[in-house]
Amino acid sequence: MKVRAAVLPINAGKFAVALNQDDAAEIGVSEGDRIRVIKSGKSVSAIVQIAFGLISRGKIGVYEEIAAELNLKDGDEVDIYPISRPSSVEFIRKKLSGKKYSREELYSIISDVVDGNLAEVELTAFVLGSYLVGMDFDEIEWMTKAMIDTGEAIEFEKGVVVDKHSIGGVPGNKVSLLIVPIIAASGLLIPKTASRAITSASGTADTMEVLADVNMSVEEIKEITLKTGGVIAWGGATNIAPADDKIIRVEYPLSIDPRPQLLASVMAKKGAVGARHVAIDIPAGNGTKISSVEEGRKLAGEFVELGRRLGLNVSCAITNGSQPVGRTVGPALEAWEALKTLEERKGSSSLIEKSLGIAGLLFEISGFAQDGYDRAKMIFESGKAHQKLLEIIQAQGSKGILKSDDIPIGEEKYVIESKFEGAVVDILNQRVVRLARLAGAPKDKGAGVYIHRKRGEVVKKGDPLITIYAETAWKLEKAIEYAMENPPIVVSGMILEKYPSFKVV
Ligand SMILES: O=P(O)(O)OC[C@H]1O[C@H](OP(=O)(O)O)[C@H](O)[C@@H]1O
Ligand SMILES: O=c1cc[nH]c(=O)[nH]1
């Protein structure tokens, strides 16, 4: 069938087209089916969206990706005809019925993820298949290797390359902003790629982006690492394990991180940047991805085994995830706390201890030092880590922030005060994250929370417990409403909530 192109100035993130419902019916396709679009002998396969009333008969809405690929302009004539769904869809269906993927099937699925050949619902089914049915270790290894092989990789001809990664899940985990400069200042190389938030209110890429550009090519990551010793780049902007960010995009709205995807996502990024020694942070505690140290140990064993299969020397740190790391949650607040701590060489003990502990672990497993923690502490206290972070920020492309107090924080704020005198007995991670997300994080960089009192700290009636920051008044309102019904900080006593009136703060 011949139709005329209407170029839609929208990036769909995949090859997709919009068809008038009657034209779609005429060639026998429905929402999510595939068609081939042909112009001057060149063709692409595209996922169909039905645009009820928005695209007139005889026209086809083409998103930017297809327009660029086929060099299409408004009014150009193209040929279209229906084609069948990729075989990956059949493999995904097989997993949903409880079967095991083969190596070839996983490669085919990951290639289709990278090429944008899967509709949103098919990609979601792939993630849910892992979440509900799971994968065995062979499948996890094959998926990780497919994720590495379908992207670009970095090789360093000289230097000792190390890397760290967290499985995430604990709010306020800004430790990479301290660890990377400590390692880089020691002379080791750390080409770190991070993801954006998955279940939290700010991923490391969201936090670093407050200070510097995080969109980098593979060549830039290598060049900056060789120049400064380290980078903190957003994995989704590179062509390193490009399937990863596409998978994370469907995990984020569901706030789930299935174990097979988690292992593959983390280890593909480490394998592709040429790291030899890798430290994995596994936060364990209520309201995180790992509820106990025992469960953390099991996951640590899986990381070490996957590392062995990929030729990487992996060590894990099971860390205290029972409450947020440091006192801030949300991109700008976390960047502020990380930079302030480096500037003043003091700050929240959970943030400093964790950062030095993981940097120290990297020093030890790479053979750089036996007293890893002490070496990391010396670099931190000497101010070299602070100077190094500033150097990395400049090399990546600074956002013009020279010191922590220059970082803009949301201007709308509300302080929740304690209604009792006593001590903080609990901080509920998931409520803290929900609160920061309702306030606008991670999209609104200035949104988030500042935690005034952490577990065990004493409060008087009327003392501030938590300050909520937002960039817009209505988001602040929503966040306050939530906090009133779901107090994130519990002061003394044994009663967590009263139902139907939850007002225990
Ligand atoms: O907490 P959630 O959002 O689930 O996990 C995602 C975060 O965990 C990892 O942290 P890092 O890169 O090791 O610092 C990821 O890169 C990402 O920033
Ligand atoms: O990078 C990451 C971190 C946690 N979970 C993932 O799936 N990827």
UniProtKB/TrEMBL annotation:
Question: Which keywords accompany this UniProt record?
Answer: Glycosyltransferase, Transferase
EC annotation? 2.4.2.57
Q: Which domain of life is it from?
A: Archaea
**Could you say which residues bind AMP here?**
G169, S195, R196, A197, I198, T199, S200, T204, S265, K289
What are the residue boundaries of the Pyrimidine nucleoside phosphorylase C-terminal domain, all occurrences included? 423-490
Presence of keyword Transferase: yes
Q: Which Pfam families match?
A: Glycos_trans_3N (PF02885), Glycos_transf_3 (PF00591), PYNP_C (PF07831)
Q: Which GO terms describe its molecular function?
A: glycosyltransferase activity
| Entries under SMART domains matching the protein | PYNP_C (SM00941)
Quote the catalytic activity from the record.
Answer: UMP + phosphate = alpha-D-ribose 1,5-bisphosphate + uracil; AMP + phosphate = alpha-D-ribose 1,5-bisphosphate + adenine; CMP + phosphate = cytosine + alpha-D-ribose 1,5-bisphosphate
- Record-annotated active site: D257
Function in brief: Catalyzes the conversion of AMP and phosphate to adenine and ribose 1,5-bisphosphate (R15P). Exhibits phosphorylase activity toward CMP and UMP in addition to AMP. Functions in an archaeal AMP degradation pathway, together with R15P isomerase and RubisCO.
State the family named in the UniProt similarity comment for this chain.
Belongs to the thymidine/pyrimidine-nucleoside phosphorylase family. Type 2 subfamily.
Designated name of the protein: AMP phosphorylase
Lineage of producing organism: Archaea, Methanobacteriati, Methanobacteriota, Archaeoglobi, Archaeoglobales
